[in-house]
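quick one: flavin-adenine dinucleotide bound model?
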Amino acid sequence: MPSGYDRPTMSPTLPAQLARDLTTLLGPDGLLTDPAERLAYGYDNSRRQGLPLAVALPTTAQQVQAIVRLCRAAKLPIVARGRGTNTTGASVPGEDALVVSFERMNRVLDIRPGDRVAVVEPGLLNGDLQAALAPHGLFWPPDPTSAAYCSIGGNLACNAGGPRAVKYGATRDNVLAITAVTGTGELVRFGAPTTKGASGYDLSRILIGSEGTLALIVEATLKLTPVGASGGRCARCTTTWPAPPPRWRG
Ligand SMILES: Cc1cc2nc3c(=O)[nH]c(=O)nc-3n(C[C@H](O)[C@H](O)[C@H](O)COP(=O)(O)OP(=O)(O)OC[C@H]3O[C@@H](n4cnc5c(N)ncnc54)[C@H](O)[C@@H]3O)c2cc1C
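yep, here:
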């Protein structure tokens, strides 16, 4: 029986004018429309597979704003993509969607060791960040097992965390500020780039873990931690406790 939610049987296509506008905006290699290339952006570690209408590869926050405005005018859904390692299907696009891949926005913008702060673009790999921080004796605590190939944007959107979360918290506890593009293409900034930032609503906490449903993250200011005697890893407890004093033995 028809449900009323049945999708049209004809495959949707990217509107020609939108394709032209996006190519003008991003350059000829900034918009992927070949089916073979699109296929590579249609999966994640959930093992589900979709085929987006096109893939946009922005290099600046302003380009992300323009993409959102163009897609909003064309009523085209957008799916953000880091490196597709999430296991929930969160980055698998519908066949009527445009994928915005952040792989070309992968720069470390600033490391301020004295402030224990790093400012990064969302496409930077977690592992590359850790390598950039190591010479400063600092690390960023979130350590999903996929760290070598997952992006900071994906970590933020999933509120990722590995074993170090026990001591340092997950991603949400290690972010000071976020710059993001809303569904209307507005650039917004949440949080403060300082460890002490008490004024105003803390909207970054709702953005972290929202899996790309509220806004597209284009920059993050991360809270860093000094590498300690444990090398930043969870130390295995090897302490041998002395025998309790006689009065505790009952
Ligand atoms: C081998 C393996 C081990 C893992 N281990 C862990 C673990 O120990 N702990 C843990 O928490 N997770 C783990 N994960 C899942 C983990 O959450 C992801 O690996 C990682 O956080 C996702 O990053 P990504 O760059 O691949 O993002 P993607 O998978 O591409 O995207 C994940 C979500 O983030 C959104 N997104 C991506 N970039 C942005 C952006 N810039 N703005 C807005 N939304 C965005 C996407 O739309 C999607 O909803 C593991 C995955 C694998 C494959």
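The chain has seven helices and eleven strands.
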